[in-house]
Amino acid sequence: MPCFQLFYSRRSRICLNSSFRWFTLVISIILSVSLLFGLLSPAIAQLQNSSAAQTTNPTASRIANQATVVLDGQPLFQISSSEQFSAEERARLINVQLREAVQSSQPIQVQLETRNQMPVILLNNRHLLTVTNRDAELGYTADEQAALWTEQLQDALSQAQTERSSSYLQQMALVAVAVLALAAGLHWCLGWLHRQASRSAQQWIESSDQAGDQGVTKTSRLLLKLLLLLTRTGVWIIAILYITNQFPLTRQWSYQITAVLISSFTAPVLSLGRNFYSVTDLLILLGLMLALIIAAGMVTNIIRSRVLSLAGIGRGPQEAIAVITKYTLITIGALVLLQVWGLDISSLTILASALGVGIGFGLQDIAKNFGSGLVLVFERPIQAGDFVEVGEFKGVVERIGARRTELRTLDHVSILIPNSRFLEKEVINWSHSNPLSRLHIPVSVAYSTDPQAVQTTLTEVAQNHPDVLAMPLPQVWFTGFGDSALQFELLVWTRDPSRQYILRSELNYRIYAALKQAQIEIPFPQHDLHLRSGNFGLSPQLESALIRLSNQFPSNGQPNKQENQND
Length: 567
Description:
- By secondary structure, the chain is of the alpha+beta class.
- It has five domains: 2-60; 62-161, no CATH class; 167-336, no CATH class; 344-429, SH3 type barrels (Roll); 437-517, Alpha-Beta Plaits (2-Layer Sandwich), CATH 3.30.70.
- It has 16 helices and 15 strands.
- The strands form five sheets. Strands 11-10-9-8-12 form a five-stranded antiparallel β-sheet.
- A hairpin with a 4-residue loop joins strand 14 and strand 15 (486-494).
- Helix 13 (451-463) packs across helix 14 (500-517).
- The longest helix has 53 residues, at 2-54.
C-alpha cells in the first residue's frame, strides 16, 4: 500500500509538472509572439512613414477628401465632393434619406438611371446620388461604380428594414439573453480554471527547488490574476459588442465606441525625437518589460537550481550570484529593448537627471536600502541561510532582496528588515565564516556538594547528547561562590546555532535528571533570622510614661472609671 501511494504521488507530481510546463510553454509562446510583434511594429511604422514622406500617394490624398455613407452605424461606401457640395454635405443628405426610408413601412426600391450622361441612383423614385468620376474607385468607371452601389444599397436597406420588425427583435432578444448567459458561464469557468491553475502552480513551486522563493510565488499569482482579468474582460467585451451589433439602434453606438477606442489607442500620445508612440505601443513596451523581468527571473532560477547547486556552491554565494545575474540581465535587456524599440539611449540622460533629483528629495530611503543591498551582496557580511541577531530579532536569513531582507524567526514568522539596518546597527552573525558556536549553561548546587562530582555529572550529560560536538571537548567551569550555592557553568559546542535554544532546553532537562539521580541538591535562595534576648535601657521619662499608661488600661482593656470620673 505505501508503495502504491508513493507511485501515485510521484505520478501525480509528474502529471502536475507536465501540465504546468505546458501552461508555461503557452505563456512563453504568447510572450514570444508579442515580443516579435512589438519589435517589428516600430520598424514597419518607420518604413511606412519614410515611404509616405518620400512619395506622394494620390489615393491617400483622394481618400482624405471623402466622406462615408452610413446606415445604422455600418459604413457602406465613401463619396467625394462635387461641384456644388462638399463630401460631408453629400454624405449627410444621403444618410438622412436612407434613415427616412428605413423607418417607413413602405417597400424600398433602389433604381439606377442615366441623366445628362451621368449615372444617378434613385431611392423610391427620389434622387439620392449622382455618381461622378471622382466617386469611382481606381479601376472602375462611374457607371460600374454606380451599379455596385445600387446593389449594395438595395441589400443594406432591405436588411435594415427587416431588422426593425417585431419578430426579428424578439429573436435577437432571446439571442442576447443566451449570449449573456454564455458569457456568465465562461466567466465562472475562467474563475474555476484560475483556481485550479493557482493550486497547481503552488503545488509545483512547493515541490520544486523554488519552494522558499517568495518572488516566484508572487509573480505566478500576479500573472494568473492578470490573465484572468484580461480573459474575463475580453469575454464581456465580445459579448456586449456582439449584442449591440445585432440591433440597428445600438449598432451605431457600437461602431462609434469602437471607433473612439481604436482612435484612442492608436493616436500618438508621446513623442521622443522623431518617433511617435500611442497607448498601444506603450502597453506593448510595458508587456515586453514585464516579459523581460519574468525571463530574467526564470533564467536566474535555472542557473541557481541547475548549475550552482550541482557545482556544490553554498546557499549564500548562490543567492549573491543569482541576484547579480538577475539585475544584470534586466539592465542589459532593458537597454537593448529600448534601443530596438526606437528610443535614443542618449536621450535618457534627462530622465536619469530627473531620477537623480527625485532620489535626492523623495527616494532617499529606497536608494539607501538599494545601495545597502548591493553592499550586502558583494561584501557578504550576511548570507542566505545564516542565523543572525538584529536588535530584538533572531532568525535565519531566507533571502536578500534589492531593498529588504527576509528573516525567518524561530517561530517561523517572516520579518522584512530594510537592508540599511544591517549596516547601521550591530549584527550578530552566528554563522559567519564558521557556524561553530559555544553555549554557556549556568548550574548552581548546594554548598555541601562535592565539586568533582558536579563536574563529572555535567560532563557526562554533555557527552551523551547527540547535538553536542565531541571536539572541542565540553568543559565545566567553577565560576564562584554565591549567597546560597556553588556556581558552575557548562560550556558545549554546536554546529547549528539556530537550534541553540532547543539544545539549551534539552540539556537543562538532562542536567536536572542527572543531578537528581546523583542526589546533588539544587538550592534555592534562603535567609536565616536570629533573635537575641537581653536588657536594653530606657530613659526615666519614657519609663514613667509607660507605667502611667499601663495603669490607665488594666488587663481587661477598659479604661479606669474612677480616674475618668475624677477627671
